[in-house]
Design a protein that fits this description.
Blueprint: H1 3-19, H2 27-47, E1 51-57, E2 60-63, E3 66-67, H3 69-74, H4 76-84, E4 89-93, H5 98-108, H6 118-127, E5 133-136, H7 148-153, H8 165-185, H9 192-208, H10 210-215, H11 225-243, H12 248-260, H13 270-273, H14 281-288, H15 290-299, H16 306-314, H17 335-350, H18 361-370, H19 377-387, E6 395-398, E7 403-408, E8 417-422, E9 435-438, E10 449-453
Antiparallel strand pairs: 1-2, 1-4, 2-3, 4-5, 6-7, 6-10, 7-8, 8-9
Helix pairs in contact: 1-2, 2-5, 8-9, 8-11, 9-11, 9-12, 11-12, 11-17, 12-16, 15-16, 16-17, 17-18
Length: 457
Amino acid sequence: MHPEINRLLVLLSRNIGQRKLYFSGHQIIRNACDVFAADLRKLLAELEIDRLFIGIVEDKLIYDGHYLVGPSIMGRQLVEFGRMLQCGGFIFKEDTTSEEIQVLLDFSNEFEHPISTLREARELLRSRDVVNIELASDYIAPSSLTPLEDQIVWQGLQSGGHLHSPLIVYQALFDVVAKTHGNISLDRSIDLEGAGAVSAHLLYSLRHNFTDMLQFVHYPDHDSYTVGHSVRVATLAVHIGENLGLDEELLLEFGTAALLHDVGKSKIPSEILFKPGLLTHEEFAEVQFHSRMGAEILLEQEGVTPMQVAAAWGHHLRHDGGGYPESPPWAVRGHLISLLQICDVFEALTAARPYKAPVTPLSAFGIMLADKGRFDPALLSTFISILGIYPPGNRVHLLDGSLATVISATSSVDKPLVRITHDQTGRKLDTTEQHLVDLEQDRSGKRAVAELLIGEK
């Protein structure tokens, strides 16, 4: 799969989100349309094709018969927009102009309710001189009655059935955080009930699809990493909390608080938040203000809980009393906010950012342990023992040449329980052939972990 297709679709979805914040013709919107049109032409030239078709099936984005994981997570707004237009996908021709992209973005902000029919949506596009962007009909199994154009664009669909349930949950988590940040940017109220509902789905998914769900903790989303960061911190927080034996009501509240802990960043200018280089002293001071701002925003919301406010305020406070925002000496953080701080830093260290590459969990633990006074030592020790140096969901290469997915840590942090997915020759094993191996019990040493495959699924 060409990686630029993923990037292009994430960019389009991000542009749809920006159009909700800026008026049509705003310089930011014009620049976004210019970039998309130029990148589209470059991609089509590289692929030696004259059009790009992106299909929508069961809330999934499809290209060339294959399900696109990243854009389906971060491109929720594109999927919803397609449904608003009653279409089954978009066709972008090589002559697509920046002005036509602008019209499409205007459409995304123009309608409060779905258009009645696909035919009406197509006529609306044509009425605004959009000739290089077409709307595809919904996918149907090809037959003699299927229009020829639809048979061609949907040819080779291999969607693989229903959307994998952990991905639905991750997508919903991503969506609720993205909408929360968008609403705050527009000074609208936050859907706290919605955040609580997806937190419940997260807890259920971790209990029933533990390893699959934690794989998304490592998903790189360079274009929306602030949102993805909150989702992954919440996933880690609920996983650790579950292992600590927290009752369900407290776990749900903790998960919701973790999802909302960075809401203050929605008020930080994007040119600072997504800056690829080092921040100036003034810019860093503005970023630091997000903790106080987040707490103030949440205090204005109806139904907010003390834990949610405390999470926004205190996730950058150190165990020794330092950090930010500056707090009075008598202020005491609860243990769960201290745990949230550990999840927050671990995710930031192990994730890719525009300004840095990810580090391994082992390196992250080394950095955290060396920072004396920053973390609650007992909680940090517990965190490390629960995750292990090869956290669940990661892919590892074993000494005997086989590949495996980490299922859980054991009492030996470097010897996890794994599921063998590929044999020593690299052949992918059928589901019935895959099997569990407890590396702690393997006395031969031939199946020790040789390498952690960073960023691999």
